[in-house]
Amino acid sequence: MMIPWVLVLSLSALPQVTSFDVLLNVxxxxxxxxALSPALLDHSSLIASSLQSGFQIPNSLPDVYSMYKxxxxxxxxxxxxxxxxxxxxxGDGIAQAKQGGTEYDTKRASSFMLFDIAYRALQHxxxxxxIHECHGQYLLGAIGASPLAPLISDQTNPLLFGALEQxxxxxxxxxxxxxxxxxxxLTSFVQGxxxxxxxxRAKETFIPIMxxxxxxxxPVQFAVFGFVEEDLQIPxxxxxxxxxxxxxxxxxxxxxxxxxxxDFIARDMLKNMDDTAMVDTTLKxxxxxxxxxxx
Length: 295
Hints:
With 295 residues, the protein is an all-alpha fold. It has two domains: 5-254, no CATH class; 263-295. It has helices at residues 5-13, 37-52, 61-74, 76-99, 106-133, 137-144, 158-190, 195-227, 230-252, 256-294. The longest helix is centred in the last third of the chain and has 39 residues, at 256-294. The termini are far apart.
């Protein structure tokens, strides 16, 4: 299982603290935005205080796994949000390092962290409904009413169709209708992009990212919905999300491009205005010289 690496990552960062105390350092990334920091700090304090009582550093990966499952049972929402926050910062950090920027962009990291926290909370409340409502009956019904009906038999496993159905609902409904609107709005706002530039960024990047999204997440979610117990689905998706965050951050994480393009256009316009003014001045001077000679 890959799940224990969530806490291994956190414990390696701060050896003598609880696994989720590392999250208390993460909100410092968003202190540049006073309106957002207090809410995040409140969440972090709640997570840390709920885990400090009777906590002991585990000595082995099985202990880490058991402890993580216990926190999922006692504090499911906070644990999923904390897991998403830590791994989102890690994924964006990898992307920033790969891009080779001059310095670490804390606004960009903050926007990914806050976005992932919000989306993990949404998953926490929507996944049970999707799992409860989608058992493969819609796909099997559609196949049964089509020329492919002979492919269905008594030995057909409805659980696999259920997993596929759940994945399709997530990726073709939940993601385009909630995931990307929240992503573009929140990351543009935190990184200081104007409404106009935010819309331009979404228009330019949405279709390419959505194609990658479908190709990456439908197989991953099919495996998770089909073979992983419900309590561990979101944490496992968070781990898979490290890879996806790198892809997303490289594709649409950096908003500086759009503000820089606007600055370049503005500078170019000013330069053209200056050039025009210089030409006008030169023409006036030459006209005055001609008038003086004629007089």
